[in-house]
Give the backbone structure.
Amino acid sequence: MSTHKDQLKNLKGPDTFQIKIYKLADRALLYRKPIFLTLIPIIGIGAAIGGWQWYRGQQRLQLQADLAKIELGYREEADKTDKEREKLHEKLMTMAPKKEKADPAKEPPLTPDQEKLQKQIEALKPDHTESTKKFLAFYQGHKTEAAGRAAALHVVKLYLEDRDVKSATPLLAEILQPASSETFDQLYVRMLYVSVLEEQGQFDTALAEVDKAIPLASDSFVPEVLLVKSRLLYATSKKKEALEALDALISKHETAPEAQKARALKALWK
């Protein structure tokens, strides 16, 4: 019979943390586009609505342009690694041993030199040191702007790609500090924060953050948030409340993909 601790380990499945993190981080970064559009004033009527408003719009446009330059450098760092990987792969292909005449469909085993080169290819990672510094510096200078928070999210994603949740946690907490009514901050970034807290076993703190996110979630996103809440409640030994959260998910969102997961968890926890 599985223990409570074993069940907790199996709740998220193999490497679901990484999948979930990428999904939330990508969603938050992609959401930046419509946010930026809402920040841009119509320049043609700038004079009519006041010089200050026009100036702020121009300032934000400049911030977007400055951030785009850093993002370009980030992509160039990745492209450099891709080119190195491609060259090594081509070299690996030239080293391929000839197939056996008796069984041409059978792939010959790698030679020691090939294995060494294959490991070298697999170990290749972009060096984002320079762009990370620039993203952080940009964020420090523009913390209250959407562009600044987007820069910080780039760094968070880099940390999480390396599974460095300890570095990502305080930065996410800091992003959420300035008062903002944007869904970008209050929902998607907060749920990303919840994920890294959960990964570190900070269930009570994560639960408090989920409760802040629930009222802001759209109908399509509520099931995902409720599923997270139920898991956190169960992790804090609040089985009754966890089952109630699952019941709410199933009854109100019965056709959502998360409802099927909720039914499975309910059967597991009873």
User: Anything to note?
Assistant: The chain is about 75% helix and 0% strand.
